[in-house]
From TrEMBL:
Top-level taxonomic group: Eukaryota
GO cellular component: endoplasmic reticulum membrane
Descriptive protein name: Phosphatidate cytidylyltransferase
Keyword Amino-acid biosynthesis applies: no
Regions that span the bilayer: 151-170, 176-195, 216-234, 240-261, 273-294
Amino acid sequence: MASAAQYDVPQTPRVISPSPTPSELSGKEGYFGPVTRSAARKNRRAPTPPPIDEDSSGSDPEKRARARSRSPILESRRRRMSGLTALKKAGPGRKGDLTLQNGVVNGHLSPAAANKNYWREMSRSPSPLGLIPIHQKWRSFIHRHEIPRKILHVSIGFLTIFLYCIGQRSDQIHPVMLALLIPIAATDVIRHRYWQVNRFYIRCLGALMRESEVDGYNGVISYLLGAWIVLRFAPKDIGVVSILLLSWCDTAASTFGRLWGHRTWRVRKGKSLAGSIAACLTGIITAGFFWGWLAPFMSETQDQSVFAFQGVLALPPQARDSLGLSLTQASVTGYLALGAMSVWSGIVASTSEAIDLFGWDDNLTIPVLCSVGLWGFLKVFG
């Protein structure tokens, strides 16, 4: 019994949690397992963690359970986000904070913080592909080559020729175009104001749209506005040819620029020499087709006295007087005048397609610049 009393039973050692608090680390009592020299060196290199407030009575469990965001938590500014629904304010909300369904801001950065509009929620892809659902399904047919959009673009030229052949006057067409322009533009304003309308609009007309038109204005508005301007203010033949150049030259430039643009020099950002050459050649053919065949063929049913181009080109009076030439000597007619007018039309079409005018849509700038270039040329040499 004496020997048993001499050796006391030791107390149970204290068990330390895997993540000790600073007070536990600073304590000298307690058992710690053996540490190798490599682990000891790592512990000496590791920075000292910041002190932890052990009194959690006044702390927010949401803040303790989740990592803090780079954005400060502002309780007075919140935004609610759920699934694929619109981002609606539940009060004065902060753009970058993620608000849970129970109304608690947890401090995490919301996925919608980098998205300007709701439609970004349809696709997390950083590339433009994916903003319009049908572009994903028909990636090559619709997204890459834009076949439906090009068909619509080209068909406007054939519609213009049809209206010209049945004897429609410019003053009969441009009021109709203005009547179409107003509701289409109003629809675009409404769809940008209400995301439900925009989503329905994209599902119906997504095959004819580009990704930039999801949160921008539809190119049809610029197309109608440009066509209305040239038919309203330019002579009939200038207006018709300007619309044909827009319809066919722009499509040719886009098609051949995508095919062979990487093999030629770049005219400017997004425009290649291959596309400009295609637009020039198409413009030459288009002008020769209209003034060389269609207008003479329809001369019996069309009043061509209002045409700006009457088949004759001449030097201006000042140039004739300085050179000592008569009007007959300084004039060209027939195929020579038609060829000069066609070549100038191709140059004007190619230039207007390549120019970036204040960032405006080329569906607006191409017909306007073409009509100005053609009408100005005929004012000088016509």
